[in-house]
Amino acid sequence: MKIDILTLFPNMFQGVFEESIIKRAIEEDKVSIQLIDFRKYTDDPHNKVDDTPYGGGAGMVLSCQPIFDCIEAIRTENSKVIMLTPGGVPYSENIAYDLSKEKHLILLCGHYEGFDERIKSICDMQISIGDYVLTGGEIPAMVLVDSITRLIPGVIKEESYREDSFSNQALLDYPTYTKPRVFRGMEVPEVLLSGDHKKIEEYRHQEQIRLTKENRPDLLEK
Ligand code: ADE
To answer: Using a 6 Å cutoff on CB, does residue 63 contact ligand 1?
Structure first.
């Protein structure tokens, strides 16, 4: 998969894709990530990419021209253009899974007050990573790249994500433990040491229900 990230702040991404699983996925050619500063596409003699809002109001609005020209220069018929915006559809594991099947993603990061509304017409989708406002779309783009890359076949073992929270069920993940058996008086549940796989499965399922009730009752209502 190819991912192009359109941003005015490519340095924000420094380091993020140079560690751990994403780094390996890039090295193994499972994904290639390109950072594109869309300021390079502006026609403005002073390199401006934004302007004041019609009708008045605070802040600056990203202009159509540099973003249209940039997207038109890089997209193909296989591209999916995604605008990161707090007004987008709520991001989820299901969306990450669908996007992990795409050949080319173009992630458009905003900054300042937002985008000229007409920029939506060149995007296939608008995504929000949560009900809070960040200073720009860069961190949301990192969230998408990370959550999508781990789902690309061969990046991590399928069994590592099959039972994750949100993967294929409306329940949170079950708790896990490793050595030592007792840490500061806190013991690993006996059943996990029993070797009885049926009992372990049942225990884990009950724990999933308990944790979901505790932390995400909204998921059970669905
Ligand atoms: N840009 C600013 N806040 C955002 C959010 N919550 N999701 C996606 N893009 C954003």
So the answer is: no
